[in-house]
Fold this protein.
Amino acid sequence: MIFDLHGFGPALLAGTLMTIQLALASLALGLVLGLLGALAKTSPLKPLQWLGGTYSTLVRGVPELLWVLLIYFGTVGLMRSLADLLGMESLELSAFAAGTIALGLCFGAYATEVFRGAILAIPKGHREAGLALGLSAPRIFWRLILPQMWRIALPGLGNLFMILMKDTALVSVIGLEELMRRSQIAVTASKEPFTFYMVAALIYLGLTVVAMIGLHFLERRASRGFVRSAA
Amino acid sequence: MNWDVIVQYLPRLLDGAVLTLQLVAISVLLGLILALPMGIARASQNLYLRALPYAYIFFFRGTPLLVQLFLVYYGMAQFDVVRQSALWPYLRDPYWCAIITMTLHTAAYIAEIIRGAIQAVPPGEVEAARALGMSRTQTLLHVTLPRAIRIGLPAYSNEVILMLKASALASTITLVELTGAARTIIARTYLPVEFFFAAGVIYLIIAFVLVQGFKLLERWLRVDACQGR
Amino acid sequence: MQTYKKFLLAAAATLAIGSQAVAAEKLKLGTEGAYPPFNLIDASGQVVGFDIEIGQALCAKMKVECEVVTSDWDGIIPALNARKFDFLIASMSITEERKRAVDFTEPYYTNKLQFVAPKSVDFKTDQNSLKGKVIGAQRATIAGTWLEDNLAKVVDVKLYDTQENAYLDLASGRLDGILADTFVQWEWLKSDAGKDFEFKGDPVFDNDKIGIAVRKGDPLRERLNTALKEIVADGTYEKINAKYFPFSIY
């Protein structure tokens, strides 16, 4: 062992698992938000276009760290009125929930653009063919557009996911015991900041590599039957 | 919303915004300078030259900026050698630590932008320059790079906005930039919504101005005319 | 299609928000976990320290079961008000500013603020000698506020997210000195990391009352006060005190 972890190995491992959970939960929320954002932006309705555009512009213009802090500390009053409304004793956003919402929100804003590009890249003829066959609009989206969008959007989404995974470190600031926070706790006890932050960096690198490999397989699977055109 | 308090503390937020702008401006400029040779090497046809900056780019793109910041700020100070070195007067200052880390971080991303831009220069143009008798260096300086700058500019402007947002992390190493100012004010006033909101609006304004500035620059460099193949 | 359903389910699960009733038999004890010896997290992830032992003793007296929850210092008062926990025992000074946001019990100890600096350095604590020095404190603490109110124009104040990060910077030489609670620093000074440092000058502020915070108007405050009187009277407090300090801090 190159690094002496002073008994904090299991703690770092638990933190890594928390980081992965946070990244996956944010990904799920972000994909939904991104899809909704892209649908709004490409819809023929002006107010929806405006809504989608405002969402992606506003969220992308403000630091992720600020979103994390704002959603964690800023929603206290909101949650209390919501609890009163529902007649509940209390409602709270855990650090995990706040982190997921903040990171999902940011992922969704960028994913909106990726999905929008993918929707626009699908030939008009496909939609028209669906209409000619008498399919309903939701059915056309679900069965014709979405499966094709997936393939086009995948590389872009993959990049966003790598960014998301690194952004999970920001949630340490509100006390969620993910990898970064666990490393800070270890530094407090061991007084060896370089050792533990370096180990954390290597773990993040490892996660990035795993994500890259996973993405490679997903992309291969998604583009079965397609010839990659030369750039 | 408690507007009076926001107005009362606005000067402190604006002081923070000035520091934010400094951090971003210095790091994206230094980052560009550092990235240029790396980007050119990455686009080279020589395998060894291409592989050389890879580890650097891989590390800085594969790990969170927060970890890098803590490695430079707290990590370096773990070693007596560093604390006794001539660099310590700079490394002991959180301002320089933030600039060093942000520069190293953004340089890795900019290098990849430069690589992509160089590779997107139509090969015909490079061949034409070579056919006219230009040397490799001349071709690089007079044909490839001017063309690559225009191709890469939109991506670079994106990177600048990303660094504007990333600069918020400097608040974790005691710098009172925009986010740090908001956090310090909130520690006194207990008004998180008001001040994170105010800071968010200031970030949006800065981002908007930067985007418009880059649009002007793109027009001045006639980026549109150069994008056509 | 399975994939999309899974995503939607996961997203729904993410949005589901934990809620719990404040049941009489179970309470959540909030603390920071980065303020040794009062509250800290050990290698096994357990939250330990003086605050926690006092808190658990109070819980035992009130005959309730307490679960320890940590929060970072910056947001610890908002977290209390968000009902992330029911009472906050985190070595928090009772200040007018905080009283606007929460209610406090009677003080459970009294602290002082004192400077710490390297033994090798001649460090005087009057305004003239402090001029131009870099002094660290934890963000959102009474020490941080005191520095900003009294010395902001004289010294360069650096505010840290945790006290530990301030110590790291004092040890690395980035800071000329730290202003913080005397007892916390006393603990650090006798540790290996603090052996080259010492207290400088008299306490600059010696009436720092430390209380337990509860939400505004919460009747829990009275129950805590009663329990506090009981543990002081029956010697439980003294026993806990002796485990941490060879002198009384009450």
User: Anything to note?
Assistant: The interface with chain A takes residues 58-59, 61-68, 70-71, 74-79, 161, 164-169, 171-172, 179, 182-183, 186, 192-193, 196-197, 199-200, 203-204, 207-208 of chain B (CB under 8 Å). The domain at 3-227 of chain B is CATH 1.10.3720.10 (MetI-like fold).
